[in-house]
Amino acid sequence: MKKYLLLLFFSLTSVLLKAQEKELTWLTDFNQAMEVSVKEKKPLLLFFTGSDWCGWCIRLQKEVFYKPEFAKWAKDNVILVELDFPRKKALTPEMQQQNYGLQNALKVQGYPTIWFVNAEKKDDGKTNLTALGSTGYVAGGPEAWLAGANQILANSKKG
User: Reduced to 3 states, what is the DSSP secondary structure of residue 43?
Assistant: First the structure.
């Protein structure tokens, strides 16, 4: 009986952890993300990743982004945007153009790179990005990564 209860406990724990991973919404459409950012008055967290080949990107997701501490922090502080540069999965031409345009605008040279930005749509239709700061993979789990992210966001409020 104890074995069955233990098995049930681990099964439920696994299901709950998977459900928590899915709770976060990572937007891929930058224009949609900008609208949400303006509405909720939160900066954008732009995650430049190679989802199907970048080992450090995958490690960052497993060690930080899939953790409950990150999920709670993200819901309170930022709008999540994934900008993917896969090798095996095909992106639409529009998505490729959007992702490469943002990569060039922010001078991203490696993965994973995370930029915190405020975005504003101008009257002429162009987008103005205010870069708040960037980071990447940080060893030490969610606590270490979030400490750096909080520092970037705190510094942006001083200016």
Answer: coil
